Amino acid sequence: MLSYQHSYHAGNLADVHKHALLAWVLAYMTAKDKPISYIETHSGRGLYALDAIEAQKTGEAAAGILRAGSAFGPDHPYGRVLAQVRAHHGDMAYPGSPMIAAQLLRAQDSLTLAELHPQEYDALRQVMGGTGATVQRRDGFKLAQAICPPTPRRGVLMIDPSYEVKSDYTDLPDFITSIRRKWNVGVIVLWYPVLNAGLHRQMVAQICADHPDAENYETAFPPVREGHRMTGSGLVVINPPWGMAQEAARIDALIRAL
């Protein structure tokens, strides 16, 4: 059983990068009066407390959303979700991507979430109660293979593994190619950490070679503490919505200016 728990890292600058762009994508896609499917392979617990011992221990939220949050107001979907979640759960609550999706999707949309870690799954199921989400304790890669192409066919697949399993870097290109063969219209979003060791580089290069129309968006930030290996955040997106490159550049500039 993998041990990763996102509570230690919730609200860091990688989350800001990933979640601001995800919220933008979902707002863009729900602007049309057509239903969409949202699928997430590694959902986590869905809601985090930034004043919890885990978050305070790493200081990543303090260097992340607690610094950057004021840059996102009600004119941005990420800012609107942050305000809604804080209004319901307190000023130190932070939404994971399942909660962001739940806040932005509509009644006609489909929301399917996978989480394998038992404690994270239990928390996720409780948090997502009443949202209409389907929550499964299941390997997210197998879930996506089983239900793609989903109904409705318009939609987003969010792939956000912990990369505890180093073979993820080598397996993900083939996984994405397999999903795209089944679901050629899906917006496939893969998040990856930018680490000093550069483990992501070959993976990203392979995905972009296999899918020349894919776009890659990265941002960089200093390590949050001495010895911290993460110096940035990246997203590879298959079938990115129109205008996403411009939004990604804006978020990148915002993060780099902090």
Question: In short, what is this structure?
Answer:
The protein has helices at 13-29, 53-58, 60-63, 65-68, 77-89, 97-104, 118-127, 140-147, 168-182, 200-210, 244-256; strands at residues 37-40, 47-49, 93-95, 110-114, 134-136, 155-159, 187-195, 215-220, 230-238. With 258 residues, the protein is α/β, with parallel strands linked by helices. The strands form two sheets. A seven-stranded mixed β-sheet has the order 5-4-1-6-7-9-8, with helices on both faces. A two-stranded antiparallel ribbon has the order 2-3.
Structure in words:
Helix 1 crosses helix 5 and helix 1 runs parallel beside helix 6. The protein starts with 12 loop residues before the first helix and ends with a helix. The chain is globular. Helix 7 links the parallel strand 4 and strand 5. 45% of the residues are buried. The protein contains 11 helices and 9 strands. By secondary structure, the chain is of the alpha/beta class.
Q: How is this fold's topology laid out?
A:
Blueprint: H1 13-29, E1 37-40, E2 47-49, H2 53-58, H3 60-63, H4 65-68, H5 77-89, E3 93-95, H6 97-104, E4 110-114, H7 118-127, E5 134-136, H8 140-147, E6 155-159, H9 168-182, E7 187-195, H10 200-210, E8 215-220, E9 230-238, H11 244-256
Parallel strand pairs: 1-4, 1-6, 4-5, 6-7
Antiparallel strand pairs: 2-3, 7-9, 8-9
